[in-house]
Write a structure and sequence with these properties.
With 286 residues, the chain is an alpha/beta fold. Helices cover 31% and strands 18% of the residues. Strand 1 and strand 2 form a beta hairpin.
């Protein structure tokens, strides 16, 4: 007797012929892909390819012009409010900025309050310390996978120090802090802004390592792996981490689909000589 195949699961995110225009300017056009549940999906493209706008759209923060997208079964943009409540977003200093004058502890305490019930405005020291410790423990977990050098060393040098101001934290520590803040609300999907904002290859390698093991920062260890969507200009450092020499079998086995976006040439006409071009409307970000 043939063993029945397991039922095919719906993708966590699905995009079909998605297009975004602002006035006469095309941001991205005819984008189609699926993101399997539990995967780390990479949206790759050069500057100007629309990957950041696409990430914002998938997080329910930006309405598209045409096409269809669903996130966790919710249609966009009709159910954008529901999507925003279920999708964590980090890595974009314009949309989710850190307050440079606040300490790490203050940032986490504020996020704990927002993630809790509206009638409970307290943020106990134990909950705040547990969230910070979870991020710092990630370095030790990565060391077991990648050895004492490389990605683990980056996180070891970038421990979140409770009394350190955000402006004084290293780039990798700021990235880790953004992950902590986004995950405190227990999202069902995590969207991460451009990994290329981390300037060195070692920092980017550390960021990819964190995203591959991001489940270690969640309280619900028994839950399905968290789908992650991350944008970047290229994924060389991610390829290096997935190389057999880095023992990827120790990592959670999650698919890593890459969706490359071609750069879009602006479609608005050039102004006549001496004329002042009309300003193009910017998409509204929620």
């Amino acid at each position: 007797m043939d063993t029945p195949s397991p039922p095919q699961q719906d993708p966590a995110l699905s995009v079909d012929d998605l297009t975004l225009r602002a006035g006469k300017r095309t941001i991205f056009e005819d984008v189609t892909f699926d993101v399997p549940g539990g995967s780390l999906a990479v949206l790759a493209g050069a500057s100007g390819s629309g990957k950041t706008a696409l990430a914002l759209a998938l997080a329910g923060r930006l309405d598209v012009t045409t096409g269809r997208a669903t996130v966790l079964g919710q249609d966009l943009p009709r159910r954008a409010g529901r999507v925003r409540r279920r999708v964590g977003f980090t890595g974009n200093s314009t949309v989710v900025p850190l307050d440079e004058t606040l300490t790490v502890k203050h940032h986490v305490a504020d996020a704990v309050r927002l993630a809790g019930p509206w009638w409970d405005l307290s943020a106990t020291s134990a909950r705040v310390d547990a969230a910070i410790s979870a991020a710092n423990d990630l370095g030790a977990a990565l060391e077991g996978v990648f050895g004492a050098d490389g990605a683990a060393a980056q996180f070891a040098r970038a421990r979140l120090r409770r009394t350190e101001l955000a402006r004084d934290a290293s780039p990798t520590a700021r990235f880790a802090l953004g992950l902590v803040l986004a995950l405190l609300a227990a999202p069902d999907v995590l969207v991460v802004g451009d990994v290329a904002q981390l300037r060195t290859a070692a920092e980017r390698r550390a960021a990819w390592a964190a995203l591959l093991t991001v489940g270690r920062l969640r309280d619900d260890d028994g839950a399905d792996p968290l789908p992650v969507v991350a944008t970047c200009q290229d994924w060389q450092e991610l390829d290096e981490l997935l190389d057999p020499g880095h023992r990827p079998g120790v990592l959670p086995l999650r698919p890593v689909p890459v969706h490359a976006l071609d750069a879009v040439t602006p479609t608005h006409p050039a102004p006549a000589d001496g004329a002042t071009p009309d300003p193009l409307p910017a998409p509204e970000i929620r």
